[in-house]
Amino acid sequence: MSAQIAQAVDRLAFRCPSILVDGIAEVDPGLRLVAHKNVTVNEDFFQGHFPGVPLMPGVLMIESLAQAATMMLLHRGDGMAHARAWLRGVDQAKFRRQVVPGDRVRLDVRLVRRRTRLARVHAEATVNGHVVAEAVLWMGIEAEQALVHPTAIVHEGAVLGAGTVVGPHAVVGPNVRIGRNCEVGASAVIDGWTEIGDDNRFFPGVSIGLAPQDLKYAGQPTRVVIGRRNVFREFVTVHRGTEGGGGVTTIADRNLFMAYAHVAHDCHVGSETIFGNAATIGGHVTVGDFATISAFSGVHQFCRIGQHAFVGGYSVVTKDAMPYAKSVGNRARIFGLNTIGLLRRGIPPDVVRKLRQAYRYLLVSKLNTTRALAEIEQDASIACDEVRSVVEFVRTAKRGVTLKRGGRRSEDVGED
């Protein structure tokens, strides 16, 4: 335990005589830590702080809690992370009792919320079971270098950003560029000409950037480009592009790919999408922002999934899935507006009302598609960017769009 304390202290933004933690009693790596500080009369700060009535200064109580928080945040199951942490702010600080020489202070810190470079920590100091100080600490975190497990294979040509962790038996190829603070899980493979942004998580068994399943592919240096803060769960596969399809597969930011999902060559996935377990999109598919493709659904090559679209489980999409709408079935049919999803995403109710009216023109009015679009454009009461995007989506379709309505007696998906 003393070695772990030394490692943690080395990553503090301060040095002796400011080391204010003497030992660790309990640790749940990254979540909670209990440490202690033995307050002795020969502490440097007692020489000038209330001579004759020595008291531990409140600011040093906060600092001791901050050092304990550093040990908690940087501790991993296999040692200390290659990072440093420091105190960035203090909220709700309260000092309940005095701390004097001879006291053994118990420092209890617990993670409340953590982002990549900032953590909120609840901290409490007690002496003999009595709370002497408490506060909410804001801790800054800065990574120094990547951490690679000894059994991982990382080619010397690969570039790993600071704070990135590569797990056991993972493989990272020579043309891979990984940003800061990413996690590559056990036995994951990232290869090919692959560029990955910051803060992505790749769970065990993930395969990113390997050759596409296209018989015309002949080893060309095509690419995969991935943005920031995406999560790729177990055994997700993402293939690089083909020369005839543009040469690149792209995934933007903050997407969730559940286990066994598949993104084929030359696909373009927007931001904030959700792929359910084993959801599969064929080559050259485009997926708009905030779309959801539910479990075990398949999307045919060259199709588009519109923004805010919802594709139900076990569906087969052979035409473009309309934006803001629910498409379900084999072959997929449209089951009205994705009302719940839109409201959850913060779309104003007035905009939802306008979209619903636009879809009535398309689905209920018995007008053909051309006339329905004309009516939508002429109806000033429903004019908004979202409705205009629906019109543009239909007009730019190359495979056709899913406008065939689902049955009224569908058990799981009803009309709006």
What key phrases describe this protein's structure?
416 residues; alpha/beta; Thiol Ester Dehydrase, Chain A; UDP N-Acetylglucosamine Acyltransferase, domain 1; 11-stranded mixed beta sheet; 9-stranded parallel beta sheet; 6 helices; 16% helix
The gist of it:
The protein is an alpha/beta fold. Helix content is 16%, strand content 33%.
What can you tell me about this protein's structure?
With 416 residues, the chain is an alpha/beta fold. The chain folds into two domains: 2-143, Hotdog Thioesterase (Thiol Ester Dehydrase, Chain A), CATH 3.10.129.10; 147-347, UDP N-Acetylglucosamine Acyltransferase, domain 1, CATH 2.160.10.10. Helix content is 16%, strand content 33%. The radius of gyration is 28 Å and the shape is elongated. It starts with a helix and ends in a 21-residue tail after the last helix.
Number of DSSP-assigned strands: 36
Instruction: Give me the oligomer status.
Output: single chain
Mean pLDDT: 89
Strand content: 25-35%
Low-confidence stretches: 409-416
